[in-house]
Inverse folding.
């Protein structure tokens, strides 16, 4: 068995074990996070490798049946046949620096598309790369990129509603220094720049300013939105990057570092579907080859960098079990001339080969071997056999789940498809079932399907609210679980494990019930719809023994109240000085009277215990003068008829104890002439008084 098939089948064996753990088909979860849902979290990923400068295709994939013509046309860069890595009976060979690609080719994980270009080619680096990234005709100027348009079409509320619960991660990631035309949408930039996730910092402090509804204000609002979005995305990207390490080392090169980051983000669970990395140095007008050895030189070095980085990337995808989910594609703005120049190089040309790597590629070589004129001259160039937009159309339809309408919306025109993804993997309607097994090939987006690709009746898992509303004491049956349904157009049947009776959610009970008299334990709640045969949604809810009742009181003397901090229940019965009240919050304020206050708190469950506390709310004594010479006046608010007064020295010795009657003036006189000069502590106690204060005796 070929490695590609072994890895692919191994991945599906593990997926089946996760999807069917000894349960009946009716018990499968077809919610939005289900393995059979077309919105599963392991979406297909595309990694684009931009080869800047114009790659010399004739020295990358060499037509071995044209060696004589190549020797005549490009003697300055010609590669000796005995150094070329042969791909077998197809008369094609790889540059010696791409030796590892032969292994990928033999594993059927490497696709070659020959002679890719576009009509009336432009030979300017900048203009031609703009054409490739915007997917425009050569005489058409478009200011948005095809991938940016694709993302905006898939996510029409971007960027205003992003990130969100369903899409908490960037929609696309660029591992360069700045955003490219490729990801520039019609109304926004759609990529996140992730050059070095270890050095992410909050780019701007959080702010939420109001701006006027004019052009300037709209621009400021957009900048504020993107700044906040970047902060949130940076956190998620850094978290994914730091959560996993690569199994296989990457070369210490620019491309190696970029793909190393990409594989760690993918392995760390980042759900971004589109990545772009770049490799420069392909503008080889001179020193493309070493004059003493044409297998060396600038072109050999950058192809070696490509070879080593892609090979490490594929190995690491295998190691993390994601090689089934990723396609990697190279592209460059153009090829090079057939005829070499006198500086051991080549000049700007036209068509060139394009590479795609992945477990699910169609491994056949696409296109004819280039034909080299016998007496080629400088003006000769390779004819395009495939328009690069055919590749884009095929990627959208066969890998990105777009369909022909989507491709035309993104690329503005219809282009013929070519087979990029193996037919056994193509899923045009994006429902998770390959076209060759799909009995319903036009499933609407977002539908939940069966194994034949046909729509199943389903409701989202969040249609239901199942929660434990009351714990239960050991040995008692006082637990409660509430069940409700948001969609009221159905009548539901509710079955609970360990409970004989079946329940109904209908208009008669407002599609909401409370299951009572439940003992401590784990319950499975199965919800079905009798009118929809085979539909079943299952939930688990646990009734536990309650925590002990806990309480704490904090007195507020100014308001004559106490704030109770309670824990352990949702309902509390509070008795304060014989007056009963109920609380449905963990914080509750109770009034206090002057003097002794008795507080007692219970819950509906006796096993939680009782919280009791006695609080004394003292009347506030007023005293004067201070410092005092002979007599200290003490005023006692309230209704007490007498008060006990004690005087202590600052060392704690009791110097005086006596009981004083309180007259109509509510003021008593305490003789202080008996005490020598110094600091004293005076206490007053009564039915509503318990207070101390300090005075200075002159």
């Amino acid at each position: 068995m070929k490695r590609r098939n072994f890895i692919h089948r191994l991945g599906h064996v593990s997926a089946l074990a996760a999807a069917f753990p000894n349960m009946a088909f009716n018990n499968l979860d077809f919610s939005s996070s289900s393995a059979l849902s077309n919105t599963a979290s392991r979406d297909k990923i595309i990694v684009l490798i931009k080869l800047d400068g114009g790659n010399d295709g004739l020295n990358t994939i060499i037509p071995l049946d044209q060696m004589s013509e190549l020797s005549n046309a490009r003697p300055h860069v010609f590669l000796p046949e005995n150094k070329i890595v042969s791909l077998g009976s197809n008369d094609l060979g790889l540059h010696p620096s791409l030796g590892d690609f032969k292994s990928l080719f033999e594993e059927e994980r490497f696709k070659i598309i020959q002679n890719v270009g576009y009509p009336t080619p432009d030979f300017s680096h900048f203009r031609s790369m703009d054409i490739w990234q915007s997917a425009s005709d050569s005489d058409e100027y478009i200011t948005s990129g095809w991938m940016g348009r694709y993302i905006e079409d898939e996510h029409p509320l971007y960027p205003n509603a992003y990130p969100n619960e369903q899409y908490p991660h960037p929609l696309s990631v660029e591992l360069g220094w700045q955003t490219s035309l490729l990801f520039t949408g019609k109304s926004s930039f759609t990529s996140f720049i992730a050059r070095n996730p270890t050095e992410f910092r909050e780019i701007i402090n959080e702010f939420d300013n109001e701006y006027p509804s004019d052009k300037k204000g709209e621009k400021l609002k957009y900048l504020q939105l993107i700044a906040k979005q970047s902060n949130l995305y940076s956190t998620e990207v850094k978290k994914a990057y730091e959560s996993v390490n690569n199994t296989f080392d990457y070369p210490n090169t620019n491309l190696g570092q970029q793909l190393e980051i990409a594989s760690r983000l993918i392995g760390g669970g980042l759900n971004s579907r589109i990545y772009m990395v770049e490799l420069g140095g392909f503008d080889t007008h001179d020193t493309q080859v070493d004059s003493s050895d044409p297998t060396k030189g600038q072109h050999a070095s950058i192809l070696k960098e490509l070879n080593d980085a892609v090979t490490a990337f594929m190995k690491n995808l295998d190691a993390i079990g994601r090689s089934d989910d990723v396609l990697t594609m190279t592209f460059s703005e153009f090829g090079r001339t057939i005829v070499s120049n006198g500086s051991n190089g080549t000049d700007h040309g036209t068509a060139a080969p394009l590479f795609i790597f992945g477990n699910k590629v169609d491994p056949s070589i696409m296109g004819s071997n280039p034909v080299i004129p016998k007496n080629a001259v400088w003006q000769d160039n390779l004819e395009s056999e495939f328009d690069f937009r055919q590749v884009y159309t095929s990627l959208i339809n066969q890998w990105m789940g777009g369909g022909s309408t989507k491709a035309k919306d993104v690329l503005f025109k219809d282009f013929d498809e070519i087979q990029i993804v193996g037919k056994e993997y193509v899923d045009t309607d994006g429902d998770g079932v390959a076209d060759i097994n799909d009995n319903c090939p036009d499933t609407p987006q977002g539908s939940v399907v069966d194994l034949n690709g046909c729509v199943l009746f389903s409701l989202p898992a969040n249609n239901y609210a199942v929660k434990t509303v009351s714990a239960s004491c050991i040995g008692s049956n006082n637990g409660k679980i509430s069940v409700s349904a948001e969609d009221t157009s159905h009548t539901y049947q509710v079955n609970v494990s360990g409970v004989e009776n079946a329940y109904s959610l209908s208009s008669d009970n407002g599609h909401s019930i409370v299951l009572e008299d439940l003992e401590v334990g784990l319950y499975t709640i199965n919800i079905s719809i009798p009118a929809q045969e085979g539909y079943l949604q299952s939930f688990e809810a646990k009734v536990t023994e309650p925590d002990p009742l806990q309480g704490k009181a904090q007195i507020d003397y100014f308001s004559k109240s106490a704030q109770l901090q309670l824990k352990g229940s949702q309902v509390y019965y509070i008795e304060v000085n014989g007056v009963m009240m109920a609380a449905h919050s963990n914080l509750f304020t109770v009034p206090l009277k002057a003097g002794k206050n008795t507080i007692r708190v219970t819950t509906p469950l006796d096993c939680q215990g009782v919280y009791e506390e006695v609080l004394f709310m003292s009347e506030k004594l007023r005293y004067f003068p201070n410092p005092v010479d002979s007599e200290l006046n003490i005023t006692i608010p309230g209704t007490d008829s007498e008060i006990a007064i004690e005087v202590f020295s600052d060392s704690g010795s009791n110097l005086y104890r006596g009981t004083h009657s309180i007259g109509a003036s509510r003021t008593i006189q305490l003789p202080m002439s008996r005490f020598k000069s110094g600091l004293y502590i005076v206490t007053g106690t009564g039915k509503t008084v318990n207070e101390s204060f300090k005075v200075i005796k002159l």
